[in-house]
TrEMBL record:
Protein family (similarity comment): Belongs to the biopterin-dependent aromatic amino acid hydroxylase family.
GO molecular function, one term: oxidoreductase activity
Keywords: Iron, Metal-binding, Monooxygenase, Oxidoreductase
Protein name as it appears in the record: Aromatic amino acid hydroxylase
Required co-factors: Fe(2+)
Organism whose genome encodes this protein: Flavobacterium jumunjinense
Length: 585
């Protein structure tokens, strides 16, 4: 069944394997309490962040059309984001890191459309519309930062993962869902926390994906900008957390100058960060990103890049010096003098050139895998790719000829050449042989009864990266998360409270309400003694209408709530302070 969602041209051009993560934003699912949570966070954030956030934040709120009073509608966001060259899509919680970054490469902002529960109003480990919409969206209105984000996605989605990375993704996704869900038993949360901690302590050598995710965390999510002594906030995790945005500006959090060493500093998503990194400007972010990219298999190639793909146990691509790209699950490499001399995939494989699959070399043809020698012929200084037609004839590399090719590293290919495939420059990409055997020190790598042999041409591996060269070569619409977001339960008591929130919202907006302000306060103070946010909203309206008697009653009631719920004390104080500040402004 096809998913329907609000689109714009940037979303339309997304490949199908990314569209599988998009879900509709069911705006009607947002309850009056959800709207009150959004409003409280946004009012507090705008008030506080105007003092400590990078100037682009407040400017971006206006440019991206985010309202303080209402949870953003994706329809409206997409119309406005289009003007700054971006788009937004709704997803269900965490999606795999490669996919998340690839969305960024297409200038598409991924927004988890659920919203945190009132109990987690200060901070939630689960991505939600406050984090994504109020955190990420405004700052991308800064063109220099937006280009950094796009470039980060372009590079990050090519990072090679380890087999541990996906386990970590699934563990963090489950933990975030359980912690955000209402009424999750403590033992389930503890078990999920223990699993995350265990994986964090047993990741082994960090993969490219793990390291670039660290850079993403310390910049895009939790970055500071300016000087170590006087930083401003630009990271979305801080911009969307009313608790941590204040905490991070204290001396309790160590401030470090941002550099590439941040790639090796792992993070704990479940706890406030003990240290943060400060970049002098957005240009420095791009400089560090390029420095990191220069260490990736994407740019270094060679034996280590092939080994990274083998360790990942996932679909990846190597590119040879001729431009031939081999995409599949790499399972073996034979090395000689520190260089790969033979590579092997297992299962469906595709061959491409410049990100386009070569005709006749898709996964149906290479359904069982692909193996080929790489490198120089033994005793010959001239590589096959550099040979002229005369050179090829001299070495019997010619159609219809029986040939024996001995590569460095003792890889021997023997067979009759059928034909060759060349690139646009006329360089040979592939040689097709029949009656072919391929051996390595006597071990059989290919034998004639297996069919026609396609030998890749390339003197070296110049790049390796995650995913296929041509996204259309493979069926990548296969993502099924092991955990799904848990919707909050709706009790009779909760329904009554939602009705009260709706009435107060209607009164504030001048609409018809089912109760008066005094009646709403009487009901919430008598029947919902743990709730504090509605009383704060009532106090705001009482102040606005100069109802001193009601205001005093609400303030006294909130004082009692603070004694009963000390964890909500600061939130209540912040809400009341905002009312008084607004009233005197």
């Amino acid at each position: 069944m096809e998913t329907h969602f609000e689109s714009n041209p940037l979303i339309d051009r997304l490949p199908k394997h990314l569209k599988q993560f998009i879900k509709p934003q069911d705006y009607e699912d947002y309850t009056p309490i959800n709207q009150a949570v959004w409003r409280y966070v946004m009012r507090k954030n705008v008030d506080y962040l105007s003092k400590v956030a990078h100037e682009s934040y407040l400017e971006g709120l206006q440019k991206t059309g985010l309202e303080i009073e209402n949870i953003p509608n994706m329809y409206g966001m997409n119309r406005i984001l289009k003007e700054i060259g971006w788009a937004a899509v709704a997803v269900d919680g965490f999606i795999p890191p490669n996919a998340f970054m690839e969305f960024q490469a297409y200038n598409v902002l991924v927004i988890a459309s659920d919203i945190r529960q009132l109990e987690h109003i200060e901070y939630t480990p689960a991505p939600d519309i406050i984090h994504e919409g109020a955190g990420h969206a405004p700052i991308i209105a800064n063109p220099e930062y937006a280009e950094y984000l796009r470039r980060f996605g372009e590079i990050g989605c090519k990072a090679i993962s380890s087999s541990h990375d996906y386990e970590m993704y699934e563990a963090i996704r489950l933990l975030s869902i359980l912690k955000e869900a209402e009424g999750t038993p403590e033992n389930e949360i503890k078990a999920a926390e223990d699993q995350v901690e265990y994986l964090q302590n047993n990741m082994g050598e960090l993969s490219e994906m793990a390291r670039i995710r660290n850079l993403h965390w310390w910049t895009v999510e939790y970055g500071l900008i300016g000087t170590v002594d006087n930083p401003k906030i630009y990271g979305a995790g801080l911009l969307s957390s009313i608790g941590e945005s204040a905490w991070c500006m204290t001396d309790n959090v160590e401030k470090l100058s941002y550099n590439i060493s941040a790639a090796d500093k792992s993070f704990d998503i479940t706890k406030p960060q003990p240290q943060l990194y400060v970049t002098p400007d957005f240009a420095h972010l791009s400089s560090v990103l390029e420095e990191f990219a220069n260490t990736m298999a994407l740019r270094t190639g060679g034996l280590s890049s092939v080994k990274k793909l083998i360790d990942s146990q996932s679909l990846g691509t190597i590119e040879l010096s001729t431009g031939l790209q081999i995409s599949g699950v790499f399972t073996n490499v034979i090395e000689h003098d520190g260089e790969p001399v033979y590579v092997q995939t297992t299962g469906k494989t595709a061959l491409s050139y410049r990100e386009k699959e070569l005709v006749g070399h898709g996964t149906e043809y290479h359904a069982e895998g692909f193996g080929s020698p790489i490198g120089m012929l033994k005793g010959i200084n001239l590589t096959i790719e550099d040979m002229s037609p005369r050179d090829l004839r001299a070495y019997d590399i010619f159609e219809g000829e029986k040939v024996i090719l001995e590569f460095e590293g003792d890889i021997i290919v023997s067979g009759i050449i059928v034909t060759g495939t060349r690139n646009l420059k006329g360089e040979i990409l592939l040689i097709k042989l029949k009656d072919c055997t391929v051996t390595h020190k006597g071990n059989m790598l290919f034998q004639p009864e297996w069919g026609v042999y396609d030998m890749a041409i390339g003197k070296e591996v110049i790049a390796a990266f995650s995913g296929p060269a041509d996204v259309n070569s493979f069926d990548m619409i296969t993502h099924v998360p092991s955990s799904t977001t848990i919707k909050p339960k709706v009790s009779v008591e909760k329904q009554e409270l939602e009705i009260l929130y709706k009435s107060v919202r209607n009164l504030r907006e001048g609409k018809k309400a089912t109760t008066t302000l005094k009646e709403a306060f009487g009901a919430v103070s008598a029947n919902h003694k743990k709730d504090w946010l509605l009383s704060v909203e009532i106090a705001e309206l009482a102040k606005k209408t100069n109802d001193t008697d009601l205001l005093n009653k609400v303030v006294n009631h909130l004082a009692a709530v603070k004694l009963a719920r000390p964890e909500a004390s600061l939130l209540i104080d912040n809400g009341l302070e905002l009312i008084l500040e607004t009233a005197t402004a």
